[in-house]
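Comment thread on ticket #2218

A.B. wrote:
> Attaching the input chain for the structure job we discussed in standup.
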Amino acid sequence: MKVQGVGHVVLKVRDLDRSARFYTGVLGLKEVARFPGRMVFFSAGTNHHDLAVMAVGAMLEANQVKIRGLRDHHVSQSIYLEDPDGNQIELFVDADPAIWSEDPTTVATSKPLTLR
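C.D. wrote:
> Ran it. Output below, let me know if you need it in another format.
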C-alpha cells in the first residue's frame, strides 16, 4: 500500500479554546465546526477540514475510560487511569525543567489537579 495523501490530522490538546485561538488567530485557519467541549475542526480553505483538535479528557470519556486520579506534582501534571487489564497508566505533561534542576526536592510534591 502506498499513501497518496493525508486527509486531515487530529491532535490531542489540553485546552480547546486556547488551541482554537492559536490555529485561527496565529496560523489563519478557519474554524469550520465544533463539538462543544470535545473537538474543533479547522480548514485552510481547500478541504472540509484539514486539522481537528480533541480534548484529551473528552477522548477518555468517549471511550469510557475512568480517570482514577489527577495530581499536580509541580514538576509535572498527571492523569491516572487504567488500561482494560487494570494496569495503572500515568499520562503527564512536564513543567519547565528549571523547576526541578534548581531544586530537586520538588519532585516529591503532590497536590490535587483540576482540569479546565
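A.B. wrote:
> Thanks. Noting for the ticket: The chain is about 20% helix and 35% strand.
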